Amino acid sequence: MPDSPSTADALPASAGSITDVPGVRVGQVTRRGDGWLTGVTVVLPPPGTVGGVDVRGGGPGTHETDALDPRTLVPTVDAVVLTGGSAYGLVTAHGVQRWCAEQGRGFRVGPGAGEVVPIVPAAAVFDLGRGGRFTAHPDEATGYEAAVAAASPDGTTVRRGVVGAGTGALVGRRFKGGVGTASLRLDGAEEGVVVAALVVVNAAGLPMPPGATGPSPPLGRSPALNTTIGVVATDAGLDPAEVSRTATTAHDGLARALDPVHTMSDGDTLFALATGARALPSERAARVASLVRVQAAAAEVVRRAVLDGLLAAEPVMVDGLEFPVWPGG
Question: What pTM did the predictor assign?
Answer without folding.
Answer: 0.92
